[in-house]
């Protein structure tokens, strides 16, 4: 007896690799600088290994990751692009960092001295960047402490500071503070007597790249814009949508007036209503917070409203004014017709969270 053919996925995310390459090219053109592609959190839910391999072929300078687990995943996947650790490391992680020549950012002298000991014991020289806290408040040296820290680290035999970086906490929200932050960072860099030792100087994330200019940096760290979304609340047509979240209509039913839809009966029909059930829910990462906040989906060339609460595995759409729909039709939950920023706003969230909440149950399909 032959095996039954495998069914197509109930819900899936189409990831457009040509759009990713386009967005990287746009980031390079807009900034005129080297690019550290931020691929933490599974490349913002798009799939770490495939996205990294695609970007590596385009010659990015670094991959930015959150922790050694992500760095290890890239190394095990055979990605040779240098890996930069965006946050502080734990003592038990530092031997692995040294062994794989990952590039950490140094946040304290304790971290620097321990790295020096580990690298010396391994007969290696660790290249690292110094993290500067210009307002983020979660790690790094305060600007006033940077000259002394650099002098102390230069005295270490097995650590070389090859870069200097800081992070922007409010580039998409507070223009005046961010301008002052750029100026403070640039002024610090310009004051350092041995600034030529830094191969890379970096500050700008996606919002920083789009909205501001530095006098001293030569590397930018785009994340969100690589995946096709501007961090500003605008209709930026420079970037192309990379991920489209899709599902299918599973059943269509005619319901009478006064009939409840979904848990809690928070929506009651007011007319004879044609209701389509779609096979996706918060178990797939589609936000439950969208419930009753006028979310729409895209079916057969039109937007249609969702009704009632988002459940774990299903949502319901009002197809009364869209009679051509049939079970099996594709449904776009977000993508080129329903921007992810719209979904995030209606869910009281941000695009970063929406992307990274898409669960492994959702199959990723990569398109060239």
Fold and architecture overview:
The mean pLDDT is 96. The longest helix is centred in the middle third of the chain and has 17 residues, at 175-191. This protein folds into two domains: 33-227, Alpha-Beta Barrel (TIM Barrel); 243-367, Lyase, Ornithine Decarboxylase, Chain A, domain 1 (Beta Barrel). By secondary structure, it is an alpha/beta fold. The strands form three sheets. Strands 1, 10, 13, 14, 15, 16, 17 and 18 form an eight-stranded mixed β-sheet that branches. Strands 8-7-6-5-4-3-2-9 form an eight-stranded parallel β-sheet. The relative contact order is 0.14. It has helices at residues 17-31, 40-45, 48-57, 68-76, 94-100, 109-121, 146-154, 175-191, 206-211, 340-346, 351-357, and strands spanning 12-16, 34-38, 62-65, 83-85, 103-106, 126-132, 159-166, 200-202, 219-220, 243-255, 260-261, 267-268, 273-278, 296-299, 302-307, 315-318, 330-334, 363-367. Helices cover 29% and strands 24% of the residues.
């Amino acid at each position: 007896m032959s095996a039954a053919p495998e069914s197509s996925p109930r819900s899936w995310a189409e990831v457009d690799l040509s759009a990713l390459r386009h967005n990287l090219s746009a980031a390079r053109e807009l900034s005129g600088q080297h690019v550290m592609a931020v691929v933490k959190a599974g490349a913002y839910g798009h799939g770490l290994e495939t996205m990294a391999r695609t970007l590596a072929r385009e010659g990015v300078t670094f991959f930015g990751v959150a922790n050694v687990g992500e760095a290890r995943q890239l190394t095990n996947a055979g990605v040779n692009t240098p890996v930069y650790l965006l946050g502080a490391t734990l003592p038990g992680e530092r031997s692995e960092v040294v062994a794989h020549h990952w590039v950490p950012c140094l946040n304290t002298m304790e971290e620097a001295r321990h790295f020096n000991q580990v690298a010396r014991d391994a007969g290696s020289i660790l290249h690292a960047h110094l993290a500067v806290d210009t307002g983020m408040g979660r790690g790094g040296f305060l600007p006033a402490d940077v000259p002394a820290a650099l002098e102390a680290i230069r005295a270490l035999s097995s650590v070389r500071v090859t870069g200097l970086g800081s992070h922007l906490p409010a580039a998409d929200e507070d223009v005046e503070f961010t301008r002052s932050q750029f100026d403070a960072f640039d002024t610090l860099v310009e004051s350092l007597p041995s600034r030529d030792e830094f191969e890379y100087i970096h500050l700008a994330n996606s919002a920083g790249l789009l909205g501001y200019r530095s006098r001293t940096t030569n590397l930018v760290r785009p994340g969100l814009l690589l995946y096709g979304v501007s961090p500003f609340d605008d209709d930026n047509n420079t970037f192309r949508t990379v991920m489209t979240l899709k599902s299918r209509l599973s059943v269509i039913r005619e319901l009478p007036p006064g009939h409840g839809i979904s848990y809690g009966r928070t929506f009651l029909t007011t007319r004879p209503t044609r209701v389509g059930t779609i096979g996706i829910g918060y178990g797939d990462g589609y936000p439950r917070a969208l419930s009753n906040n006028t979310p729409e989906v895209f079916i057969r060339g039109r937007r249609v409203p969702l009704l009632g609460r988002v459940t774990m595995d299903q949502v319901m759409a009002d197809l009364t004014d869209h009679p051509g729909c049939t079970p099996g039709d594709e449904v776009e939950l977000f993508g080129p017709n329903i921007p992810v920023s719209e979904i995030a706003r209606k869910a009281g969230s941000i695009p970063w969270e929406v992307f990274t909440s898409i669960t492994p149950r959702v199959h990723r399909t990569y398109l060239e």
